[in-house]
Structure formats: structure tokens, C-alpha cells
């Protein structure tokens, strides 16, 4: 495939100014919603082939987020894309100042496999909304969903403003040689660095949505059952293959036993054994092998059960873990939950601060002092108090990492901003032009300027 020709065509289309029309953008977003809604069964079938994800989880964690992003954008787009007046200093009287969001241009969205629809299509919503053209490069690892998106997008949209290009490392490497006006990447820290370097060659602005080890801190001022219920759901959803899943738990020693027992009860009641409805596979053999190597038999408090033929690892709790254990050296990205005990909150906070800045952090506590210490002292992308994962559903909360977990954010207005340039304009009439700033200079002029400019 001639990638340069596709990008050239998108540049021509962008320069035709068609995407500057808000009505055009809204029409494309509505068309995207219709295409997805009319083909939901096809999308469910594709994701089931990739990792046996159920219709329930696919709707709740993928399609619903895309639909609500489209709804919000359609409602707010006029406001987001309007010129914003700001105050003007006396030095420029009589003038007005405003900020005019303009689309960055031709954009490239590179998706990850774990929520293949959401991670490829949710960034497309703000890209289209901002007036960019888009090329999606979905993850080749979820090959059926990649093909499904390619089919639906390429059969329903003009490639000069919206196109899916399938492929893996080789194809992405080729694509990255081309100059884009924006690259939006979701994936691992290691590949994020490759994307950042490639973007730097063209000074292309980037958003990097990366991963890392997101902690959950469980203090002693909690409702144990509700804490366990929320954490179990957040950890084992998508079989733990979630960038913002609680990677590990730091639990106060005095509640450890009650907490672990409650977690086991919750796992049992979720009935993950009814697999096709309630639980997904591990995406491929490489990840399956990597994960089972992390399960040290002596450390298993609960679970450890696997089904090699089906590529399934059932929820597994590890205890007596310290920060030197192999499971704590990398993002787990699977249904294994290490539980580490702490004695005082300072110790827990310090331990987290010793690791790269996480994408998310979850604190379970009714204690205001502890909550504020966690929020003020630990740097992380975003998170929740007394819950996990659900912050992603709030579209007015910018979603993204910090440090190793990413650069930039999206969802709602922040997504629109990620694909926009804020053009700043000072607009003057002709009818007045004081001679103050012009030569010949004088002490009198300087005195007035000092008063005006401060
Ligand atoms: P990945 O980095 O392996 O792949 C992501 C994308 O990059 C894919 O489209 C892939 O084709 C492409 N890619 C892979 N190697 C490449 C290379 N050498 N050159 C150019 N492109 C390349 O990530 P993944 O395995 O798909 O996803 C898992 C990771 O993504 C985890 O670390 C997870 O935490 C993170 N993630 C982050 C978010 C977020 O929103 N922050 C969401 C989901 C996943």
C-alpha cells in the first residue's frame, strides 16, 4: 500500500477546508455512530474471535464509551470550536483578543489491542471533532477487530479524511516515516519511546497514552466488602488486560486478613468460571506464558488455576510479595493480583514514589488526612478514591498519564484540545494609533509606557 499517497490525499482534503465546517464534522460523527450501531453484532463476533470477550463487556467497556464520547461531542462542539474572547491590555487599546481553536491537520491514531475498539475509535471522535483527518493503525495483535474496523471504516468513509491502515511493526515503522500533523499513540512505554522519536523527526505533536504499574492502597478505614467488590471487578475485568487496572494492592497490615477473605468471596461470587459470559481469554500465547511465569506457587493465596488450551488464567491472588519480586518488576497486564502489606501510610506512599509515575492510583480510605497525603504526595495520571477504573467514564476528567505513563490526555474537551492548535489573535481597528511606541523616543513617552506596562 502506498501510505504516502493516502497521506497526500488527506493533506489535499484538509487544505480544501472541508473539515473547517462544523456541520461536516458532526455529520461524520453521526455517520460513525450509525455504522457502529448497525454493525454491533459483527463487532461482537470479531472481538470474540480475538480473545473471547463477551457482548456484555464489549458493550460496557468499549462501545458505550465511544457512543457517549460522540454524544457529548455533538452537544458541545459548537462551544468548543468557537472563538474565545479574552481581555486585552490597555497598551493595545482599542483592540480585542481571542483564541481560535484550529485543527492540527492530518492525524495518525495508533491503537493497542486490549480494548481494540475503544482505544482506536475514541481518539477518532475528538480528531474528527477538531477538524483533523484521521488514519487509524489498530493493533495487529487483535487481528479480527483490526480487520473489522478496517472493513467498516474503509467501506463507509472517504479515505481522504478517514481511513484504517492495518499492520504491525513493519507497517507502522513505514507510516512513521511520513510527516503527520498529530500522532496519538496508545500502547507500551517501550513503543511509546519509538513513536516519540519518530514524531520528533517532523516536530509532530504527540499524545502518548502509556501504561505502568497502577497501585491500589487499601487502608484500615474502609468498608471491606465494598472495597473488595470494586477492586475485584476492576482487576479481573478483561482478565486484567486493562491499562488502568489496579496492578497491585498495598494493604494495611491490620486489615489484610479481612480484605483477602473478602476478595476471595467476591471472586467466587463473580462466577468467572462461566467463562464466555463472565471472563475473557489472555490475548495470545506469548502473554499467557509471560503471565504464568509470574505465578510463583508458594505465593499463591487463592487461584493459580489455568486452562492452557483455552488460554485462560483464573483470578489469582499472590501474598508475601515484596518489591523485589519478579511480579513487581513490570506491568502485569493480566489477572494476577499481588498483595503487599504496609504498616503506616508514609511507608506505602514512599514505596509507590520509588517506582515510575503510574497511570492510575486508587485509594480506599474514609480518612481525610490519609486521602490528602496520597493525593498530594504521589504523582499519577488520574484515579479514584474508594473506587477503581470508573474515573475513565467521566468525560470531563482529562484521561492520560504523567512521566512514564504518558504525555497529554483526552476524553471530552481535553480530546478536542489534543487535536487542536490554540491560535491566538489580537485584532485592532485602524481608527487610533498612539505614537507612544514609535521613535523618536522621549523620557515622557517612557514614563507613560512604564505606567501602562507595569
Ligand atoms: P504495544 O506498545 O506493543 O503496541 C501498541 C501499538 O504499537 C500497536 O498498534 C502496535 O502495532 C504498535 N507497535 C508495536 N511495536 C512497534 C514498533 N516497534 N514500532 C512501531 N509501532 C509498534 O502495546 P500493546 O501490547 O498493544 O498494549 C499494551 C500496553 O499498552 C500496556 O503497557 C498498557 O498499559 C498500554 N495501554 C495504555 C492505555 C492508556 O490509555 N494509557 C490503554 C491501553 C493500553
Bound molecules: nicotinamide-adenine-dinucleotide
Q: What structural class do helix, strand and pairing data support? A: alpha/beta
- First-to-last CA distance: 59 Å
Sheet with the most strands, sense and barrel status: 7 strands, mixed
Estimate the mean pLDDT confidence: 97
Number of strands: 18
Under the CATH scheme, which architecture of the largest domain would be assigned? Answer: 3-Layer(aba) Sandwich
Write the layout of secondary structure elements.
Elements: H1 3-15, H2 22-38, H3 40-51, H4 55-81, E1 84-86, E2 96-103, E3 106-110, H5 116-121, H6 124-130, E4 133-137, H7 143-156, E5 162-164, H8 169-175, E6 182-186, H9 189-201, E7 206-209, E8 215-218, H10 224-236, E9 248-252, H11 256-270, H12 275-278, H13 285-294, E10 300-302, E11 306-307, E12 312-313, E13 316-318, E14 336-342, H14 345-353, E15 360-364, H15 368-377, E16 382-385, E17 406-407, H16 412-418, E18 420-427, H17 443-453
Parallel strand pairs: 3-4, 3-6, 4-5, 6-7, 8-9, 8-15, 9-14, 13-14, 15-16
Antiparallel strand pairs: 1-2, 2-18, 7-17, 10-13, 11-12
Helix pairs in contact: 2-4, 2-6, 3-7, 4-6, 6-16, 10-11, 14-15
